Structure prediction request, 179 residues.
Amino acid sequence: IVLLIILVVLYFTFNSMREVLIVLSSIPVALVGGAYSLHFFDVNFSVAVAVGFIALFGIAVETGVLMLVYLNNSLYFKVKNHTTGQVTNEIIEDAIYEGAVQRLRPKLMTVLVDVIGLLPVLVATGTGSDVMKPITIPFVFGLLTSTIFVLIVLPVIYAYVRERELRKNGVLDYKLLED
Prediction:
């Protein structure tokens, strides 16, 4: 149900199923990181673990949305300010590079704050740790894999999709998105 709600909200945000699928591609990567962490820490699936995964999916989608907004805006301004008006693969790649670089520091700061803030919960052994650890374990490790994906792979997927669109249609369907 949570994933369906996320899908609907994303569609209303982007008005493009293609961009929704690009953003949602971060969820399986986050899931893999969370699942490996459960195996590594020998934690069984429970309601608390499910809550951790739901929180993880929300953060993974949010970071993907922010990256896509920055990539779209960078592409918009790059094409708008280009003198010839002819869009090429090089312009697309430059715009994607600029948009991704703008998100690097804020994304890393967000992840570091989340991970460092939850580190005491991961190493805790006192009262309540048996409840909080199963929520925190998939969240922290899924967040790490999701971050790597959003910073490195998502811009590559976006570039591939945009270059394919340019090759197929001869023009790009882009717009300025407010974040």
